[in-house]
Every structure is written in C-alpha cells, then in structure tokens.
Amino acid sequence: MPFISDTLSRVKPSPTIAMTAKAAELKAAGRDVIGLSAGEPDFDTPQNIKDAAVAAIAAGKTKYTAPDGIPELKQAICAKLSRENGLDYTPAQVSVGAGGKQTLYNALMATLNDGDEVIIPAPYWVSYPDMVLLAGGTPVVAETSLQTNFKLTADQLEAAITPKTKWFIFNSPSNPTGAGYSREELKELTDVLLRHPHVWVMSDDMYEHLAYDGFEFSTPAQIEPALYERTLTCNGVSKAYAMTGWRIGYAAGPVELISAMRKIQSQSTSNPCTISQWAAVEALNGTQDFLAPNNEMFVRRRDLVVSMLSAIDGITCPTPEGAFYVYPSIAALMGKTTPKGTVIVDDQTFANALLDEADVAVVFGAAFGLSPNFRVSYATSDKALVEACTRIQTFCAALT
C-alpha cells in the first residue's frame, strides 16, 4: 500500500516558487543572479500598517480569533467592497484566510466533486489548475493568444462550458500577463454566464489597484448584478499594500459558500495571524495615498522592460494594462542554439539556459499553460531591471 496519497500525484510543485528558490540558491553560492521570477513588490509595507501591527502586539491582541477573521477586518472588507466596487456584503458573507491562495483553495475544496469542471483561461496563475485537481475537480483550460492580448473571448467561454462546469476562474489584471479586461470585454463574458445559471464565478481581483494608463478595474458582480448570488469576489492585501509575507487574503460571496469555507478553515489552519489581521484593518481603512506614487514607479518599470525586451530580435512583448508582469513571446527563438550549445526547444529550455548562462531568473511559459513565452516580474529596482534586460539582450544576440 503506497504511503503517499494518490491525489498528490495529480499535482506538481509551484514552478514560480521553484525558480525563485533555485535563483536564491545560486545567489547564496556566490552567483550574481538577478531574480525576475517572484511576484512580490520590492516596496516596504507602509509605515502606518506596520505601526498598526506593533500597536496590536502592545495591546495584547495576539490570541486566537474566529477561524475566518476578526469582526473589525470583516467590517473593513465590507466597507472597501462597497466604497470601491459598489458591492454590498455583510460580515457573514466574508471569509479571511492566510493569503489569497487559501481562500481560493477553501472555495474549491468546499464545492468540487469528482467530475466537476473548472474553466481556467490560459495563461493562468500556476496554482489554479493544481488547486482544482487537489479538490477533485477537472481543470478545463481555455487558451487565449497574443492576438487578443491574452484575454478570453465570449465565444471561447461559451465553447468551454459544459453541463459539468461548476466554476469559471477570472483574473484581471492578470498574473502572468498583466492584461486587464475593459468593462465592455467583461460584459461580453458576463452575458455568456447569464445564459448558464449552473456556472459560478471565482473572480481573483488581487491586482485590482495595480492598473495603468487610465485602465479602469471592474469585477464581474459589479458589471452584472445578476451574477452576485453565484460570484465569489476574492482579493487581499499582498500586492498593492506590499504585504506578501503578512498572509492575508479575503473573499466575499453567498453565506452558504462562506460557511462551508469556514468549516474547512476551522479544521485546517484555523484563524490567520492575528497581528496580520489588525495590520490589514489599517491597510483597508487607512490612507491610500501611497498607491498612486507606487503605480507611477511600476509604470516606469513596465515601460523600461517592455522597451528593452521589444528591442530584441525574436521577442514580442506586449504592454500590459496592470499588475507587475510582462509575458513576452519567444516563438521566433525556437530552434536556436545558445553559446554553450543548448538548443532552445521550448520556453523551459530558454528559461533554464538564461539562468545558467546569463544569471537571470524568469519563469517559463509552460508553467502558466501557454507557450512559448516567459514571465518577467518587474517588481524590483530600475537598476536590477536594466542589468537583467541587458543580459537578456546579450544572451539572445548570441543565439545562433
């Protein structure tokens, strides 16, 4: 009898975490590696948020809380969703988890049965399909393309829906492409979903505040109120508030679903870190003044990376509307050979060779379900980005 569960054989470790760990290992060994693989802002957590955490410790707010969040944080989340998204929820409709990943996972575990299908547009965040598999569901990948700026069309969504479809996972702005859906594009998708009342929507809004060039963020239940009762609106404080390590994510949806998610969390992690919860209260209720200047820096970095990568013969790099990633195509580099003799047969070979021969860590496109591409995170310093892109330029120029 095997000791390890058969379920675990269906999934793989996160490629983004694996590449980041490999880069860190090489750097610790003395290599001058520049990491562009982690989806983590290089900004420090704002001081008012850190102060709120310190105040919580000083006040002795360090005990267990309700499994899915303190009332004060749930109230702050409800206020945020009303203020910024025009969505009215009560605290009973809110679940707080140890990061956005946990809330998504809890929802899938609470709802999926064998044979249930989940539509996932590709390229996708690496964890979506594996979380579906762990929960016993079947990922149905709907591939987008560079021609549609990596956005799913209404016809593609319609074609992917079957009687077995339970969820449609939606992410805008996107990880890994940074693509953002306009209100009109999102309305086309919600019109399809209205015709299929058995399909629920899981909207991952984690990059909501990282939107550029006048792009206006919208979330599905905001665009189509008729979907409110079958939408789980998910978000968190990790990205825009530079709080990745604090591990606070949240979701809002129907009471029955939130209650089921609470049951799972009560038997797994129980409550998220109490101190982090109080910090998140301040993040949502406190000043938002740092968001605009941070976004200005991200726009500058985005434009820098897009410009330098687009100058490379064989790379096509679209300009994203949000998040802090670019997702260049390397279709024209397939079949070329590196100075060390490695033939670029796919994007994983490209990424591995780039790390080995140029000391730049990126994530290969196959990890996100669409090749041949690679993902660059530009959430690091201008100096590091210039040096990394220069190395990529030199590496690609040497291909034969």
From TrEMBL:
Reaction(s) catalysed (UniProt annotation): L-aspartate + 2-oxoglutarate = oxaloacetate + L-glutamate
CC cofactor: pyridoxal 5'-phosphate
Gene Ontology BP annotations: amino acid metabolic process
EC number: 2.6.1.-
Top-level class of the enzyme under EC nomenclature: transferase
GO molecular function, one term: L-aspartate:2-oxoglutarate aminotransferase activity
PROSITE patterns: AA_TRANSFER_CLASS_1 (PS00105)
Domain Aminotransferase class I/classII large: 32-392
Gene3D superfamilies according to UniProt: Aspartate Aminotransferase, domain 1, Type I PLP-dependent aspartate aminotransferase-like (Major domain)
Keywords: Aminotransferase, Pyridoxal phosphate, Transferase
InterPro entries, alphabetized: Aminotransferase_I/II_large (IPR004839), AspAT/PAT-like (IPR050596), NHTrfase_class1_PyrdxlP-BS (IPR004838), PyrdxlP-dep_Trfase (IPR015424), PyrdxlP-dep_Trfase_major (IPR015421), PyrdxlP-dep_Trfase_small (IPR015422)
Domain of life: Bacteria
Subunit structure, as described in the record: Homodimer.
Family listed: Belongs to the class-I pyridoxal-phosphate-dependent aminotransferase family.
Protein's name in the database: Aminotransferase
Organism: Parasedimentitalea marina
